[in-house]
Design a protein that fits this description.
GO molecular function, one term (chains A, B, C, D): isomerase activity
Number of helices of chain A: 15
Structural class of chain A: alpha/beta
Oligomer: homotetramer
Keywords (chains A, B, C, D): Isomerase, Manganese, Metal-binding
Protein name (chains A, B, C, D): L-rhamnose catabolism isomerase
Helix content of chain A: 40-55%
Domain Xylose isomerase-like TIM barrel (chains A, B, C, D): 93-287
Low-confidence stretches of chain A: none
InterPro entries (chains A, B, C, D): L-rhamnose_isomerase, L_rhamnose_iso, Xyl_isomerase-like_sf, Xyl_isomerase-like_TIM-brl
Largest interface: C-D, 60 and 61 residues
Strand order of the largest sheet of chain A: 4-5-7-9-10-11
Chain lengths: 424, 424, 424, 424
């Protein structure tokens, strides 16, 4: 963890400017009929989960360039997640990935308690082969043509639930890479039937107070067809399984040009939005930092979420899911948690009464302007104040750097050599 | 109609070569365990509807360059459709578009009977304003914020059904342009709710022996959001409406890179495939001639259709829907009808028993090869023989040109001046 | 024109809030080491041309829904452009389109002088056939296989130059729709050679103080291939022609996912950036309002432009090019001019010294953060103050509505009936 | 190598059917005025290089599932390449990748001679860090901000040339992953200037009888910008470097919907087409088997190549570049070599005199039909006969399986455990 004196020193340097900015914004919002403190309070309670694997350096199929101080295992990862939460106060939970993060439940809970963290959704892995795994997922997992392989994948998911129950998780997220690389390689229909059968077997064992999230993705690692290729198929799954099954939306898993906020709206409308894997993308599943490529799109997603607040059953789970190849992962996750909160804050500023009126009147210019006015408002003072008020850092990245955390853990954690990606 | 002597003369010139090709292919297919005559017989019964508007020259928003002999109205259009059917024997029905094709039912039927044509699905139009139309569709039709405008659009669809009943049609196809051009312009959820309400009002009046086809499209004419934007939303509509509501798939209405055959498979699997608007596209809804850009994709769609043959309730409607900007529309439609049959014939050649075995064994190489072998077989002799046997032309385009049909109708139908597209 | 009293009244209502916002932003920017007045002064001199055709309602190939008070000709259009300039003080010039805007030069100049407007680049039209035009552009214009048709298109462009010389224009913009709809329809190489020959013939007649802008576009109205399909081909043209030939970038003319700011950077680097047609797009050449879909992308383009300021020969032309289907065109153009200035102002806020340092150190997090900080600054007070200081409106749209301009011209200009798009 | 008796036995089983098919096709082509033997002879001399790394199983960033009998090093790889050439007679050369394939030149040559193989272009690798490499490529290589890192990358390329000279290679292919993941991370212009400087340093050392191929790619491994992002930038590189610098086209490296054959035509027209990396793609750089997704696109590329045959300086290099994740790599490469030849054979069948006439007359229907007729001709008998005549297998895959080669090498080569992809 970062020493409190470092945080305090950083905040002391910045607090006067922050108060000036906050007051000025407050006065401006007051003229728009908005209470800045009310927005700050809502933002302060908004948390997004950090994926345990996110604190390690990512890679591509071509190469992986590890940074220094890479976490050696789940307990190092939790330490890193603790720092993110300490400075941002925006990431109170961690999402584990099995088998990467397997450890005794008591140890996990103790460590998390110590760091002030909780556990979010569990993530299963049937897209890789593990050492000593009897059957390979080369040709699929939950939708494999071989029943025994499917059963192995089902049991792995059940094990994830069991581990999750031990640490207080309440959801299982399933993402698989099943699909095909050639037209004809699979019977598209039979493959989906097998998937549904496997998913039903998992759902049948889901604890009553758990939710099951399934995630669609257009392509990669399968490059001709993917079993759960889009929200249409994802919806069919959630519908077939039952009320506790919901669809997870990853912002990078769609076809080019897709209107993602519309998918979000549809899933909300039909009661099947499970939550999000936040990141950003320009080309495919780029897993770039949230809000780094198209911040307006992120805002439009949150515009739908804020509009749906209070709707019965509306309770999406939020998680970051990024691959950090050229930055310090802790910095990227802190920055991204802030970007998620920024979009949320901006969406809270939308004058929804005025908007509804413009929509009813087909006054496209004023309706669009209403959204743009909210989006262009610089809400950084609100975000910073929410952090400060909760014991975090006004400027998390500067504070993190000042604390020398990366250098410190680099001294403790052995260097990892650069591994090639999948192609060698 | 084309004089029979012209057809006969053209066939006479070509029949020897055709028989040689047919026999050689027959011998080859025989070695693959396939009866060429059985394939020819199936192909011969396969028909695809021609859209009445397809026989006129299309255009873009930039310009329209009319050809000569443009049909002046529905009866000229039917004449042109009659020629297509006469030469190809592949297009026994015509699909009307209201109000463009409004005429007394008796007259329509008499003309069609005379030409040996029947009527396919009816198409409504609420994407344009008609003279004397009380309320504008500028901001939408079935999903408009104004109830009276929605009601006007509903009633137009009901009128289409009524007209269709008079001429023996058994289906209504709804495509609308409703959507928005700005983020915020519409409430995405409320707009879809209004759409569903309107669609239900139409469905409630659907005759028992009719089907309702709804068509999705990613974009255009709306450029930020479209109410029925993809198959996921289209499925929800069909599901909400009832058993006689099905989804229509237009090959050019999808996001870039979309696996269309997979959408076809999913809709079949869940009992909601209504049929197709065939065309081809490279960029967007280009409405190019079927099979002209990606013939393998067309084959893969038919591979799913042939695999589903005989499945209970499986009865998709097939129609061409193209915009002919640089060709004689009659030639394009004849050629495209042939391309549809080509894909069907190729798909019939797939060794499905072998394929299923390779799929079960995850032998991607042989499975893919099984499809490719069928695709690369040159089935033109089968298609030509099916035409010849049914009284059509071995080479429809050459025969059409030899007959001088375009010159003849150009003399009768006044020239149309080049109108600008939507932008002027 | 709008009465000054209406403008004054609108400004009076808003000036106190504006001064408060401006002062607060000034204080904030001062803490970042930036003089708000200096930014305002740069912004105030930044102008973007309005296309004459932009003040009319646009359309799609499916339909056109005219608004009220549609301009009847170039003089009405100039009136509308005058209002846009009057209220925004950001659009001092108009770009004409021939033959739509043909009129005696003296009359055009007199009208423009009266309205305080100048003339920007001339636009030729060889993508439509005009009444009495001897040869059709159905199969192409500057790249047509027929020499006489090419010559007709060349002469039209020369006429545009001549007209432009009469009214003080200094540039010709060429956009053509030439291409093909079928693989094989054209010889891709020969077609481009013909294009180059025609372009050279035009360039040979270009006055010494003129520039020639060529515009690329991926597709539409040609749907298989387009002669000038991308910036690579566009660059080759400009290179082949000579020093006064440059490439025009339209933000909606690229392949999905294209990094447009990188194209801008390359063209600047190689001395061939001619300028822009500003608009926004989600799918294709949607011609939506600038900044309405992806404002961050617009900012990134301006980030390259500001970085290149002062580079020898760097002098891009800026024009809006949008299609207004659901808004009052005057409102959209005022809003879009403001959005262009917004991106410019944001780009001026980038701390380029800090950025260069982060780039040199490969500190991606801080480099990206430097851009984001500039982008998220709400510069609206700067834009509004620049308008106010120059006699424009603090809130142009509200002032325009208050003035009742549309109602006034609707009373004078006859209603236009809804024409169908290209498909009917 | 495969035992000749196995090849002979396989051919014996198939030769009668082949002769029947060949004769029937010959008779058919004769009616079209084409000599089948002339086509076969041209096809027989057409070779495509195999990449050394292609014989190993590929992977994605998520996982790699190795097959059995994975080659342990370059000599095993050459053995596998030898089998591909032995059975297909279409892959006479191998393209090496340094440092993966480093070995004494004499040993490489001896082994290649023994297998009847030659060496094609050399491939450098500055997209990965190698053990003991002093400076990391994490932030770039030839375009890195650090001069010493650039120099290291330059020297690696020079070493590749040196190695290549020892084994008879005549070309160097450069593909780098340099780019950025965040807007602002790099100065797009300065980065390209550094790239050009480095490339010039390599070019300066290029032997007189060598060519330098540079390869563009839209994205991956960089996900916001890539230095050599498209053919426009690639052309600028080749132009800046000099006459022996050419552009390499990989079929999967383009934006969605890109008309690739047009890029090929442009590069030929301006003398800068270096050659190809053949594969197929549906979404991104999927590296699927050539012709497996869009065989018509491959044909259209070859249509341009055949049209350019004989043009001065036209001499493109052909190589397969695929990632084999679900097939035996040897089978995929044999199949893909055949697909390349198939497209070549089909393109040779195009009646170019007729085509030119239709193009001149703007007869799009007949022009397109001319291409389609060539494409749909089943040329497999020609390809098989070319193999048979040269000592290869009529059915390479069946013969390869019958020979039990994979089982044999699996016994000799130790099993490789499934490694995770870049993300773990």
């Amino acid at each position: 963890m970062i020493e409190q004196t470092v945080i305090d020193a950083g905040n002391e340097d910045r607090v006067a400017a922050l108060r000036a900015d906050y007051d000025a914004l407050g006065a401006h919002l007051d003229r728009r009929g908005i209470s800045i403190d009310a927005i700050r309070d809502k933002v302060a309670t908004y948390g997004v989960a950090v994926p345990s694997w996110g604190v390690g350096t990512g890679g591509t199929r071509f190469a992986r360039f590890p940074g220094t101080g890479e976490p050696r295992g789940i307990f190092d990862k939790l330490d890193d997640c603790g720092v993110i939460q300490q400075l941002t106060r925006a990431t109170p939970t961690v999402s584990l990935h099995i088998p990467w993060d397997k450890a005794p439940a008591a140890d996990l809970k103790a460590k998390a308690d110590e760091l002030g963290l909780g556990f979010d959704a569990m993530n299963s892995n049937t897209f890789q082969d593990q050492p000593d795994q009897p059957l390979s997922y080369r040709y699929g997992s939950l939708s494999h043509t071989d029943k025994a392989t499917r059963q192995q994948a089902i049991e792995h998911n059940l094990e994830c639930i069991e581990i999750g129950q031990g640490i207080g998780s309440k959801a299982l997220t399933i993402w698989i890479g099943d699909g095909s690389n050639f037209p004809g390689q699979t019977d598209l229909t039979a493959q989906f039937e097998r998937y549904l059968d496997s998913a039903k077997a998992i759902y049948a064992q889901l604890p009553d107070d758990w939710r099951l999230f399934t995630e669609h993705k257009m392509y990669e690692p399968a490059f001709y067809s993917t079993v759960v290729q889009d929200w249409g198929t994802n919806y069919l799954i959630a519908k077939e399984l039952g009320d506790r099954a919901h669809c997870l939306v990853d912002l990078g898993h769609h076809a080019p040009n897709t209107n993602i906020e519309m998918i979000v709206a549809r899933l909300i409308q039909f009661g099947k939005l499970g939550g999000f894997h936040f990141n950003d993308s320009k080309y495919g599943d780029d897993d770039l930092d949230t809000g780094s490529i198209d911040p307006f799109r992120l805002f439009l997603v949150f515009n739908e979420l804020v509009a749906a607040e209070g709707k019965p059953g509306f309770d999406p789970a939020h998680m970051l899911d990024q691959s950090h190849n050229v930055t310090d992962p802790i910095e990227s996750l802190m920055s991204s948690a802030n970007e998620v909160r920024r979009a949320y804050a901006q969406a809270l500023l939308v004058d929804r009464t005025a908007l509804a009126g413009f929509q009813q009147d087909n006054d496209a210019m004023m309706a669009a302007g209403t959204l743009k006015q909210a989006f262009r408002t610089d809400v950084e003072p609100i975000l910073a104040m929410a952090r400060l008020d909760n014991g975090g850092a006004i400027d998390p990245i500067a504070t993190y750097r000042a604390a020398g955390y990366r250098a410190k853990v680099s001294a403790e954690r052995p260097a990892v050599s650069g591994a090639g990606g999948g192609i060698v």
